[in-house]
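dumping this here so i dont lose it
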């Protein structure tokens, strides 16, 4: 059986710039009904980073992710992945959305759901089965190959969606509030799963959430967005130990400092105050 951690490692050397967002702006519609969702966002993500994006509801997080993943064309500015302009969904990128219920096909088994993108890539059956099995093992669902999504809990369905993304061996894994619809305990387990997948596979992760604690617990870096029309309010390095644990990490004084800092920053963002807080 294939071991997913020994799969081909991402091509970009860790630490080099992988994703580059420059002066990205997005306005929906035109004329009196137009909505300027994003004014101007610029940032770089290095290969192998785990970056969380946090911001007030409606500030344009999903819009940003759709632009990053080539699902939406920005009105201004540009996105480049490994030096190539993103104008359509790149092969190197996989996206996991919030609504697992709508992202899995109920009439396909878990095996076939996870294998679907690999089939579309015309991977031979044997290799496809190995990759599907390894991805499901990675998310703790090695036993669920023949079940159907509707036989699984919400948290398990979201793990299937993550398995589908990693079976594809992306260089960049983009996640849009993937755990918003599951209970707190499941959410904690899924957060740890994301960090483990990130560490095991060396994939670059961009994780959008409106949950401040989640952004600090998960991220090596947190991008705080302002309210709409949106800019980057702060780009914060998370200097917590890389081995994280739901109980001890969240009990660290540094965790509390960082979450308080991000919280204050979001409150400023909601008030329309774009000045950065002093570093914490
Ligand atoms: N297809 C669309 N047409 C017009 N306006 C849109 C469209 N999609 C989003 N918007 C508007 O753009 C702004 C940003 O929306 P977006 O969904 O990106 O925010 P968000 O930060 O993901 O919100 P949430 O936290 O609720 O998920 C909002 O004002 C929204 O109403
Ligand atoms: Mg959203």
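and the seq i came up w/
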């Amino acid at each position: 059986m294939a071991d997913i951690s020994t799969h081909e490692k991402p091509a970009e050397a860790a630490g080099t710039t992988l994703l580059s967002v420059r002066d990205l702006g997005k306005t929906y519609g035109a004329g009196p009904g137009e909505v300027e969702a994003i004014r101007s966002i610029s940032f770089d993500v290095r290969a192998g980073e785990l970056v969380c994006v946090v911001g007030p509801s409606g500030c344009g997080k999903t819009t940003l992710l759709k632009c990053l993943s080539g699902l939406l064309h920005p009105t201004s500015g540009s996105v480049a992945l490994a030096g190539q302009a993103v104008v359509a969904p790149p092969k190197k990128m996989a996206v996991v959305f919030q609504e697992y219920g709508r992202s899995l096909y109920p009439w396909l088994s878990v095996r076939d759901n996870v294998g679907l993108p690999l089939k579309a890539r015309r991977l031979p059956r044997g290799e496809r089965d190995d990759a599907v099995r390894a991805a499901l093992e990675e998310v703790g669902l090695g036993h669920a190959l023949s079940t159907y999504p509707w036989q699984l809990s919400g948290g398990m369905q979201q793990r299937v969606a993550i398995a589908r993304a990693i079976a594809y061996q992306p260089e960049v894994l983009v996640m849009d509030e993937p755990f918003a619809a599951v209970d707190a305990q499941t959410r904690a387990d899924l957060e740890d799963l994301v960090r483990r997948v990130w560490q095991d596979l060396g994939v670059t992760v961009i994780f959008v959430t409106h949950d401040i604690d989640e952004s600090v617990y998960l991220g090596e870096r947190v991008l705080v967005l302002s309210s709409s029309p949106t800019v980057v309010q702060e780009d914060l390095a998370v200097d917590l130990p890389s081995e994280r644990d739901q109980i001890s990490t969240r009990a660290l004084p540094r965790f509390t400092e960082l979450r308080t800092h991000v919280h204050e920053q979001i409150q400023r963002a909601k008030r329309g105050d774009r000045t950065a807080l002093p570093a914490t």
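The two ends are 47 Å apart (CA to CA).
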